[in-house]
């Protein structure tokens, strides 16, 4: 397999350069109780608007009823590989407080929490893959989520598996070089 370390234009933290989103998870790997406590602690300490902390998570280990519900809600190619992950996490934004006041930055804040979670997971030797391809209404119904709780993404997490754990159509994609647009393209205005 090709090196998965990002070829950055300037040095970044090793944990960030080494982080990538695999699809090949080891279907025999399981997470012992408490193994994910550190990643959720990292998420807990992410910044948020007015310290509202509008992120919630649904954690489901492979083999549980909740895992099956989340897996059934995955669409496209996600459904073909994510079931091998040790756990699936639904990332949920609390877009209104309990009194019905809007939290317009909730999804942004959730993204910060998931980024913190991702970096912590990488530093602990775990791998994860974020997915937007899922049926939000199916998740909402499966877990009886109140309207103020919006499922935004799903994360597969676990140990790396071999390419033989992937459908053939995804094997080349898993090994393709990592690419990003040039750094200069990201900054719209530079004064």
Automatic annotation (TrEMBL):
<dbReference type="InterPro" id="IPR029479">
    <property type="entry name" value="Nitroreductase"/>
</dbReference>
<dbReference type="InterPro" id="IPR000415">
    <property type="entry name" value="Nitroreductase-like"/>
</dbReference>
<feature type="domain" description="Nitroreductase">
    <location>
        <begin position="79"/>
        <end position="158"/>
    </location>
</feature>
<protein>
    <submittedName>
        <fullName>Nitroreductase</fullName>
    </submittedName>
</protein>
<feature type="domain" description="Nitroreductase">
    <location>
        <begin position="17"/>
        <end position="76"/>
    </location>
</feature>
<dbReference type="GO" id="GO:0016491">
    <property type="term" value="F:oxidoreductase activity"/>
</dbReference>
<comment type="similarity">
    <text>Belongs to the nitroreductase family.</text>
</comment>
<dbReference type="Pfam" id="PF00881">
    <property type="entry name" value="Nitroreductase"/>
</dbReference>
<keyword id="KW-0560">Oxidoreductase</keyword>
């Amino acid at each position: 397999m090709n090196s998965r370390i990002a070829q950055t234009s300037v040095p970044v933290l090793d944990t960030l350069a080494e982080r990538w989103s695999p699809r090949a998870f080891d279907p025999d790997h399981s997470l012992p109780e408490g193994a994910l406590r550190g990643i959720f602690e990292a998420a807990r300490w992410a910044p948020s608007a007015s310290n509202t902390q509008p992120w919630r998570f649904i954690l489901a280990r492979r083999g549980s009823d909740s895992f099956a519900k989340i897996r059934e809600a995955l669409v496209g190619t996600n459904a073909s590989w994510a079931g091998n992950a040790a756990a699936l996490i639904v990332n949920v934004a609390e877009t209104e407080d309990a009194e019905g006041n809007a939290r317009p930055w909730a999804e942004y804040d959730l993204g910060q929490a998931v980024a913190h979670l991702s970096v912590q997971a990488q530093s602990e030797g775990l791998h994860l893959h974020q997915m937007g391809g899922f049926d939000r209404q199916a998740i909402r119904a499966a877990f009886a989520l109140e309207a103020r709780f919006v499922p935004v993404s799903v994360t597969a997490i676990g140990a790396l598996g071999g390419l033989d754990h992937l459908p053939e159509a995804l094997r080349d994609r898993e090994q393709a070089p990592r690419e990003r647009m040039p750094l200069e393209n990201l900054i719209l205005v530079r004064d």
